[in-house]
Design goal:
Oligomer: single chain
Number of domains: 2
Helix content: 40-55%
Strand order of the largest sheet: 3-2-4-1-5-6
Mean pLDDT: 91
Radius of gyration: 20 Å
Low-confidence stretches: 315-320
CATH topology of the largest domain: Rossmann fold
CATH class of the largest domain: Alpha Beta
Number of helices: 13
Strand content: 5-15%
Number of strands: 6
Order of helices and strands: EHEHEHEHHHHHEHHHHEH
CATH architecture of the largest domain: 3-Layer(aba) Sandwich
Structural class: alpha/beta
């Protein structure tokens, strides 16, 4: 596509887990003659391939992917770091006259990338130490319940196992007396840094859930359990944040505590379905995303190409 690089937009492809984002993004990136930028918070970790549904070597050979395998599982990584790494990639692609295709299911990463990050309060070492002691007394779920009492908005948004964000939210509240959700609301992430074409792929909920159940079984067949065992053997303990993620948490418990494998698999499926529901709730909060039935790939690609051309000063009509 012959487009003016100064006016190029960024395409964002989101959707619930297992909806088919990887295959669609590769087809669209090939059509646009461009490259893909990962926006999945788990696919940034090395050695975690099967359980994160990372693009395969064959898929990566079809289209170049950025921001996969960025850090080890024991290295810190968050949305702010993602934004720092991803923006130069977008700028480089634009300089080369290419439209970046950003793909993933982590809504916060996409929001931070396109709208910047909410300025947070500075850390307070003493408060954090008190919280760590409190965690030993009442556990992470107890801390999540405390957060829900002092900051119901954020408490309802965060998963009870999201240790880092729970601790951070309580740290901000106890150190400043102000809810982190209020700081985020004041920031509002207003003003996009790029022209964007936002696509959300979806299906009927029952079909998404069926796909999730099948994919979990396929992951097990492909060696997910062996992958978790290797990570544990490499010294990446079950308490690490990435090892607490979906699938890894359950299989590590199976390997370390003897939890029956069939029960672990059932729990992975159940929690992944809940995660997919939360993803859809998150992206409904961004009215700029255009929702499509994931099966209608030709229709979606036609719309995306016309939107890209329109925002780039190419075609006059968007074909809405």
């Amino acid at each position: 596509m012959n487009l003016d690089h100064a006016e190029l937009p960024v395409v964002l492809i989101a959707g619930p887990t297992a909806v088919g984002k990887t295959a669609f993004s590769i087809d669209l990136a090939s059509l646009l003659d461009t490259e893909i930028v990962n926006a999945d918070s788990m696919q940034v970790y090395r050695f975690m391939d099967i359980g994160t549904a990372k693009p395969t070597p064959r898929e990566r050979a079809l289209v170049k992917h950025h921001l996969l395998d960025v850090v080890r599982p024991d290295e810190p990584f968050d949305a702010a770091r993602y934004g720092e790494l991803a923006r130069p990639v977008l700028e480089e692609l634009h300089r080369r006259g290419k439209v970046p295709v950003v793909v993933g299911g982590t809504g916060l990463y996409m929001k931070v990338l396109t709208r910047g990050i909410c300025p947070g309060a500075p850390g307070d070492h003493e408060v954090r130490e008190r919280l760590l002691l409190r965690e030993k007394e009442i556990g992470l779920r107890g801390l999540h319940e405390e957060l829900a009492r002092v900051d119901p908005v954020l408490g309802g948004r965060l998963h009870p196992n999201d240790r880092q964000r729970i601790l951070r939210a309580l740290e901000v509240y106890q150190a400043t007396g102000k809810r982190l959700s209020e700081r985020q609301e004041e920031h509002r992430f207003e003003g996009s840094l790029y022209r964007t074409v936002k696509i959300f792929l979806t299906l009927e909920r029952d079909e998404i859930y069926e796909r999730i159940d099948r994919r979990v079984h396929r992951m097990i067949e492909e060696g997910f359990l062996d992958e978790v065992a290797r990570l544990l053997d490499m010294g990446f303990g079950p308490d690490l944040r990435p090892m607490q993620s979906l699938g890894y948490r359950q299989l590590a418990r199976h390997l370390g505590e003897g939890w029956p494998l069939d029960e672990a698999i059932h729990d992975i499926q159940k929690e992944t379905r809940r995660y997919a529901k939360r993803q859809m709730t998150w992206f409904r909060g961004d009215p700029e995303f255009r929702w499509f039935d994931a099966r209608h790939t030709e229709e979606i690609m036609d719309w995306a190409v016309r939107r890209v051309r329109s925002l780039s000063g190419g075609a006059d009509a968007e074909g809405e």
